[in-house]
Amino acid sequence: MELPKDPMMLFSVINMKLRDCYSSLDELCEDMQVDKTELVNALKAVGFEYSQEYNKFW
């Protein structure tokens, strides 16, 4: 699956995947073959931070 380039769509898709399919960001990135650092930086650039405790970006 190709992830959206739009940051708000990316935020939505990633949080949906984390909620419905993956118990951690590491698991999502490994399974989807996504660079974790690039993903975190892309969402951080628009104000979102990952919460390991809640397993979501906010």
What secondary-structure arrangement, pairings included, does this model have?
Blueprint: H1 7-20, H2 25-32, H3 36-44, E1 50-51, E2 56-57
Antiparallel strand pairs: 1-2
Number of strands: 2
Rounded Rg: 10 Å
Low-confidence stretches: none
- The helix content, as a percent range, equals 40-55%
The assigned structural class equals mainly alpha
Mean pLDDT: 97
Order of helices and strands: HHHEE
Identify the overall geometry.
globular
Query: Largest sheet, described in full?
Result: 2 strands, antiparallel
Strand content: 5-15%
Number of domains: 1
Widest sheet, order of strands: 1-2
**Tally of helical segments:** 3
**Which quaternary structure do these chains form?**
single chain
InterPro entries: DUF4250
Protein name: DUF4250 domain-containing protein
Organism: Bacteroides faecalis
Pfam families: DUF4250
Features of this protein?
two-stranded antiparallel sheet; 53% helix; 3 helices; 58 residues; mainly alpha; single chain; DUF4250; DUF4250 domain-containing protein; globular
Report a brief summary of the structure.
With 58 residues, the protein is mainly α. It is built from 3 helices and 2 strands.
Detailed description of the structure:
The protein has 58 residues and is mainly alpha-helical. The protein has one domain (7-47). It has 3 helices and 2 strands; from the N terminus they run αααββ. It has helices spanning 7-20, 25-32, 36-44, and strands at residues 50-51, 56-57. A two-stranded antiparallel ribbon has the order 1-2. The mean pLDDT is 97.
